Amino acid sequence: MKRWIFRCAGLAVLAFAALLTFRYFDKSLVDTYFRKALREPLGLAGMTAAYLAAFLLRAWAWQLYLKGKASFGACLSGLLYSLLFNHLLPVKAGDGLRVFYIARNGVPWGEALRSTVVLRVLDLLVLGGMAAGGAVLYGFDLSYRFLGYCAAGGIAFLSVLLLLIRSGRVSFLSGEALWSMIRSFRGPRGIGLFLLTAASWVLEAGVLLGTVEITGLSLSALEAVWVNAVTIAGQSFQMTPGGLGTYEAVMSFALVQTGLEGKQAYAAALLSHGYKFAFSFAAGLAVWLVSPLPLRDYRLFQSKKGSTVL
Length: 310
Known about the structure:
Layout: H1 2-24, H2 27-38, H3 41-65, H4 72-88, H5 93-104, H6 109-138, H7 144-167, H8 175-183, H9 187-215, H10 221-233, H11 246-257, H12 262-290, H13 295-305
Helix pairs in contact: 1-12, 2-12, 3-4, 3-9, 4-5, 4-12, 5-6, 6-9, 6-10, 9-10, 9-12, 10-11, 11-12
Pfam families: LPG_synthase_TM (PF03706)
EC number: 2.3.2.3
Catalytic activity: L-lysyl-tRNA(Lys) + a 1,2-diacyl-sn-glycero-3-phospho-(1'-sn-glycerol) = a 1,2-diacyl-sn-glycero-3-phospho-1'-(3'-O-L-lysyl)-sn-glycerol + tRNA(Lys)
């Protein structure tokens, strides 16, 4: 049933992306934007600095959650490996690789998994807050169709979560695990986790802001943060490598809400996403050269991890 649901959702996403491409793809405009980007090395360097800084803050937050049980370098490497494989594979296998990598660096499997789940939930809460706050602040005209998509996504998320819980393989709602998650957000440590996570997503919006600056489009910093939050939140159920298609669809919709034309919004989304693909491959290759990951051990890890409960 789960496989059937995900396949149908994947086909729907691909169909919507194809429709969007047919309607808004302008090859000459996309070529123009990409040529402009290649002529702006300083702009690309600024985007890279902002995007890398976002991952540095997430690594710091992960190390803070783990109370120093893993080094900062191990946390950063785990995140960059996750980024790479999320852009290589049609599902978010990178999260499993992230758990595996940090577990290989001395963190117990249960705690490695729990930390990944907690920080992913925190990401969604922060992104959801940014998306909702921006919609209220700017008074964006969110159609009933879009709200329906959001509701459908939420229902799908809860359905998959319940299926995982009922399978007995991973108990996300066991009393001890739930209490541990709640305690993670108490006191100064919890405030630090929230601030680091929020700041990381603000910095990631620098990629979109750099994109519109390079292409000569108009977008404020706050609007860039809102568009980025809506776009990333829309990647919760990735059906294609790097969310290809979904990313462009959601970002184009959000950019149109800020006043851009459809063709401009779609071309900017393609440029922004193309940059993120390039960054993920370059960063993944760099971390692979520094700290090679034995994929044979990862396959063995996958075969055994199901027997462990949070």
